Amino acid sequence: MNRIDFMKQLESLLQNISPAEREEALQYYNEYFNDAGAENEQNVIEALGNPAKVAENIKRDLYGSGYGDAAFQRSGANNRAVVQYHQNGQYANTQQNAKPVKEEKKMSSGMVALIVVLCVLASPVILGVGSGVLGVLLGMILTWFGLILGFGLTAVILFAVLLFLLVLGGMCLFTDPLVGIALFGGGLVCGGIGILFLMLTVAMAGVATPAICRGISGLFKKKA
Questions:
Q1: pTM, two decimal places
Q2: Closest CA to 46 of 98, 91, 110, 104
Q3: Is residue 68 scored above 50 in pLDDT?
Q4: How far is CA 132 from CA 138, 143, 149, in A?
Q5: Buried b (16+ CB within 10 A) or exposed e, 32-53
Q6: What number of other Cβ atoms are within 10 A of residue 143's Cβ?
Q7: Given a cut of 60, is residue 100 above it in pLDDT?
Q8: Which entry of 6, 99, 106, 138 is 20 to 30 Å from 56 by CA?
Q9: What whole-number distance in Å separates Cα of residue 4 and Cα of residue 1?
Q10: Strand partners, 105
């Protein structure tokens, strides 16, 4: 049986009531089908039940307790079946003795207490891991700036050695020219190495460090 057959049988069974009341009843059940949608047609028919039983209930409600929307809501399968529709077109089939739909339970106080206890028990592990990560990050930062400081101090020391060897070589140049020249050469080597360490210090402090800071700042901005 489809919707058309159901409505035709219902209309035929309601021929002994007034045309206005019959039209209102048919319109009421047509709206049921419309609200449910074509895909739920068979489910609506199963929920309402036999057209003869629906017609019998309509007549009983009409001649007994009065006629209206409330009367139609009481008609259906097993004398009490009713189809309730939601705004999204879905429906729930309920009966007089059907158990009410249970609402979703909120988190109980016991569950909240359990979560709090677990957090307290896990706090040493969380603190340990957090401290370890923080220690590693702090160690990396200190190591980085330690390298910058070390390279800078090395450059300064090498430049000081350069100056010292140049002065000493100049003093020895008149007494022992070979020693003086050797001291000049050693001083120039120290100066070249000092320039290399100075370049590394400038690159790390003036180029690499700002680039790393900009990269970290960009990561936080993307996550935000």
A1: 0.41
A2: 91
A3: no
A4: 10, 16, 25
A5: bbebbeeebbeebbebbbbbeb
A6: 10
A7: no
A8: 99
A9: 8
A10: none
Distance CA 91, CA 32 (A): 10
DSSP line for 146-179 = HHHHHHHHHHHHHHHHHHHHHHHHHHHTTT-HHH
> What amino acid is encoded at 172 in this protein?
C
* 1: its two tokens: 């049986």
Q: How many residues does the chain have?
A: 224
Quote the tokens at residue 28.
Answer: 């009421």
Of 55, 49, 53, 61, the C-alpha closest to 22 is: 55
Dihedral angle, C-alpha 153, 157, 158, 159, nearest 10 °: 100
- Helix or strand run (H / E) with residue 94: strand 91-94
Among the residues of the chain, which ranges form H helices? 3-13, 19-36, 41-48, 51-63, 69-73, 109-172, 177-203, 209-223
Could you give the CA distance from residue 113 to residue 116 in angstroms, rounded to a whole number? 5
Residue recorded with tokens 């360490």: 197
| Burial of residue 56 (number of CB atoms within 10 Å: 0-12, 13-18, 19+) | middle
- 73-96 core/surface letters (b: 16 or more CB in 10 A; e: else): ebbbbeeebbbebeeeeebebbee
Q: Are 166 and 184 in contact (CB under 8 A)?
A: yes
**Residue 12: CB atoms within 10 Å:** 11
Alpha-carbon dihedral sign for residues 53, 59, 64, 69: positive
